[in-house]
Amino acid sequence: NAGVTQTPKFQVLKTGQSMTLQCAQDMNHEYMSWYRQDPGMGLRLIHYSVGAGITDQGEVPNGYNVSRSTTEDFPLRLLSAAPSQTSVYFCASMLQPTSNQPQHFGDGTRLSIL
Amino acid sequence: DAKTTQPNSMESNEEEPVHLPCNHSTISGTDYIHWYRQLPSQGPEYVIHGLTSNVNNRMASLAIAEDRKSSTLILHRATLRDAAVYYCILRGDAGGTSYGKLTFGQGTILTVHP
User: Smallest CA–CA separation between B105 and chain A, in Å?
Assistant: First the structure.
């Protein structure tokens, strides 16, 4: 059981480039989300999805797009990378978005924007 | 979201028990108390959660005060692999768009000495 799989693990981009961070889960979880973690700070929610075809913004959505065409996949797109988006990105999933459900996290994508 | 307060850091010796405290004086009646930990260079990992009663699992125990205004995560025998940042997080069914979000504070940095 792979859990939550993120690819790539590391990426370096130039300002203005675009890329997609991949996230896949094999647990048939309804809820998936993306967080970013900056040095010395807690995780901040970027976007989330409560099911295929349904996405919504978190607390720091600017500069990022998401889509959820299948239950398993929840890619995060940077359309025009900026140095402020240098961060570690974590994808998470849980069975249902209720308060008694644990979330499962991937190992992260470490992204540097030059 | 109700706020939690944790010590910035704690230290322990290997194979000794560790008690990690968390204060949450503004907790509501429907808030679950969740604990996650983050090992160096990894994504957060779910540890345990509870509502009112003490809880045990293979990783740890959660002791919840009778008035629910505080809780303690107990690692029965610390190992070097338990060195991590431990986060105490409250999650409630507030409805709307916030119910899936985890609000990470600064957490407690646990150092385990050989």
Answer: 6
Q: Which of B7, B13, B15 is nearest to B87 (CA)?
A: B7
Would you say how long chain A is, in residues?
A: 114
Identify the three-state secondary structure at position B2. coil
Query: Are B48 and B73 within 8 A, CB to CB?
Result: yes
pLDDT for the residue A51: 92
pLDDT at residue B13 is higher than 70: yes
Q: How far apart are CA A68 and CA A51, in angstroms?
A: 7
Instruction: Check CB contact of A23 with chain B, cutoff 8 Å.
Output: no
The letter for the amino acid at B78 is A
Residues 6+ apart with CB under 8 A from A55: A47, A48, A49, A66, A67, A68
Q: How far apart are CA A99 and CA B34, in angstroms?
A: 9
Residues A89-111: tens digit of each pLDDT = 999 999 988 878 899 999 999 99
Per-residue model confidence as pLDDT tens digits over B53-92: 999 999 999 999 999 999 999 999 999 999 999 999 998 7
Tell me how close the Cα of A56 comes to any Cα of chain B, in angstroms: 8
Q: Are B73 and B87 in contact (CB under 8 A)?
A: no
Burial A8-24 (b: 16+ CB within 10 A, else e): eeebebeeeeebebbbb
Backbone angles phi, psi at A34, to 5 degrees: -120, 135
